[in-house]
Design brief:
This protein is mostly beta strands. It has two domains: about 5-180, Sandwich (Jelly Rolls), CATH 2.60.120; about 195-315, Jelly Rolls, CATH 2.60.120. It is about 5% helix and about 40% strand. Strands 1, 2, 3, 5, 10, 11, 12 and 14 form an eight-stranded antiparallel sheet that branches. The protein has a six-stranded antiparallel sheet with strand order 4-13-6-7-8-9, with no helix packed on it. β6 and β7 (about 80-85) form a beta hairpin. The chain is globular, with a radius of gyration of 20 Å.
């Protein structure tokens, strides 16, 4: 199981931070990301053959003249494998083929709904064959046939698109991209709320937890660390199965020192380091999964989170 992106940060999508009630699930988030008309709001995909894209979605009621394009999956050859085409307020999934397949499905409005999209490519060892499934609130709404003319594995997903539902009136939150089945899963966003044990970076927990693209925390030498404490709050419904750490990184330029960055969890006075990544000039999201509490070796409990610090480390 690999998670490639877990975020509710507007910076990752080029969207707008919005705390308006009703546009996100308050049990799992404290804001949504507003999407603008005629903006792709895209994210890079890892180019693997089987991939899940999951997110919460909200749009007000749509009138009969609402048209547009959104939720576009591009292949390695820049072919749109599948996408939503809105026509007169109706959601239609179009899957690329010699003769495109079109399937109409329903998405409730004026409420937050969970969307899970599964894309399969390289079916039968043929890189041009692909199939998509779309789930709405955990129920299968779209299942395409195996289609042709795909052009390789999924490489990019655009939340928005041309004339995106007629204006800046659509919101997404709690985005997860994984090779694991995402149906029936959600995550609660817990940004750092206080400075932790480590405080070597320029900037720290405040800058890492404010969702502002204008504030950053950065290392100036190898061996530096920063960590932040959490405020777990009330446990949402469901079972806590794992903890993910997630951050967005980039390098300031060629030959930057330090050259590598990694996430770590701190529990009981011990740092549990995740894998190192080498960021470049482009934005690099990094995710580290902790299936069990590394301090106890046991399944996580909600009470464990009060003693957890989350951090970043720099290595030359």
């Amino acid at each position: 199981m690999t998670d490639y992106l877990i975020t509710n940060d507007p910076f990752d999508l080029g969207g707008i931070y919005d705390t308006t009630a009703g546009r996100f699930d308050p049990a799992f988030a404290d804001h949504a990301i507003a999407l603008s008309e005629d903006t792709s709001h895209g994210v890079k995909l890892p180019e693997v053959d089987s991939l899940w894209i999951a997110f919460d979605f909200y749009t007000p009621a749509m009138g009969p003249n609402e048209d547009g394009v959104c939720w576009q999956i591009y292949s390695q050859d820049n072919v749109v494998l599948g996408r939503v085409s809105l026509l007169n307020g109706a959601f239609r999934w179009i899957s690329t083929s010699a003769a495109n397949e079109l399937l109409t499905f329903g998405v409730p409005t004026d409420q937050v709904v969970r969307i899970d999209i599964f894309v399969e490519t390289n079916i039968g060892a043929n890189p041009n064959q692909h199939r998509e499934s779309v789930y709405v609130n955990g129920s299968l709404a779209v299942l395409t046939q195996i289609n042709s003319n795909g052009g390789g594995a999924p490489a990019r997903f655009n939340f928005g698109g041309l004339d995106y539902i007629n204006g800046n009136n659509c919101w997404v939150s709690n985005i997860r991209i994984s090779d694991e089945n995402t149906v029936g899963t959600k995550f609660k966003v817990l940004p750092p709320t206080g400075q932790g044990f480590h405080d070597d970076f320029m900037g720290g927990a405040t800058e890492l937890g404010d969702y502002l693209s204008t504030t950053v925390a950065y290392a100036t030498a190898g061996g530096q660390r920063t960590s932040g404490t959490l405020t777990p709050g009330a446990q949402p419904a469901g079972t806590l199965t794992r903890v993910f750490l997630s951050s967005t990184t980039r390098s300031t330029g060629p030959g930057a020192n330090p050259s590598q960055i990694g996430l770590f969890a701190r529990l009981g006075g011990v740092d549990y380091d995740g894998a190192l990544q080498t960021p470049g000039a482009a934005i690099l999201p990094i995710v580290e999964a902790y299936p069990v509490n590394p301090d106890t070796g046991l399944d996580w409990t909600w009470a464990d989170l009060a003693g957890l610090e989350v951090g970043l480390r720099a290595v030359t």
